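Subject: design request, 256 residues
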């Protein structure tokens, strides 16, 4: 029945209706094509923008990586210089300490020698005084025992005729005593100066040890600060997981 109706229908009307249907289908397909083309262009633009952003980000990351590598090289160079300076300072302090110890030993030996000399001079002076007194007692006893000599012996216990000679001898003895006392005073003065130098050397040693301790603390603090700054810069530049901090470098044992 449909075929018969179509056959009975005017071909011109049928062709017009078929043409309208095809035009509508064509318009629909063209609209879909336009929509797809617009979506494709939009997608291409979005992808291009994403690609440009990714390339810019990659360039920035590459620049930061290069800067981080350069900083790492510079920090390693600075660390090496600081280690060399630390070694030089330790060597200087060690030499100063050895010099101070040598001066202390030398000063101690000089003090011991001065003490020994002073003891010997004191013993010698006492012996000479005792011998002079014994000789005077012997001469006095002999003169008192002699009848001829007792007349010229004074009541104070000294000889009148030999007074000049004995006075000369006494003057010589006094001069020798004064000379010994002068030498003793000079040695005491030198001993005092040596003790003062010893105290100054000890103070200088304590000051050097204090400076060495302060310097070691500053060096350790600088190392810790350098490690922390390096780690923070690497974390910031790379944006990766935090690195394990390196173990702190143990300072070398101090030489005794």
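Subject: RE: design request

Done. Sequence follows.
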């Amino acid at each position: 029945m449909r075929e018969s109706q179509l056959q009975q229908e005017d071909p011109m009307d049928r062709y017009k209706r078929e043409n309208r249907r095809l035009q509508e289908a064509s318009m629909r397909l063209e609209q879909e094509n336009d929509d797809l083309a617009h979506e494709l262009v939009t997608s291409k633009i979005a992808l291009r923008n994403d690609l440009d952003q990714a390339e810019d980000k990659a360039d920035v990351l590459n620049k930061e990586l290069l800067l981080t590598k350069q900083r790492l090289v510079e920090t390693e160079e600075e660390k090496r210089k600081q280690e060399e300076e630390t070694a030089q300072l330790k060597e200087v302090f060690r030499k100063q300490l050895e010099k101070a110890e040598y001066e202390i030993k030398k000063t101690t030996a000089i003090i011991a020698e001065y003490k020994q000399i002073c003891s010997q001079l004191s013993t010698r002076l006492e012996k000479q005084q005792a011998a002079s007194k014994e000789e005077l007692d012997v001469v006095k006893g002999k003169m008192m025992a002699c009848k001829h000599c007792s007349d010229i012996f004074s009541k104070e216990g000294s000889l009148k005729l030999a007074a000049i000679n004995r006075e000369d001898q006494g003057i010589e003895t006094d001069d020798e005593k004064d000379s010994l006392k002068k030498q003793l005073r000079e040695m005491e003065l030198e001993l005092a100066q040596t003790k003062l130098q010893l105290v100054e050397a000890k103070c200088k040693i304590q000051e050097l040890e204090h400076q060495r301790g302060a310097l070691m603390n500053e060096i350790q603090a600088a190392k810790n600060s350098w490690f922390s700054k390096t780690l923070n810069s690497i974390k910031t530049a790379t944006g990766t997981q935090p690195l394990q901090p390196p173990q702190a470098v143990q300072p070398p044992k101090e030489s005794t």
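The radius of gyration is 57 Å.
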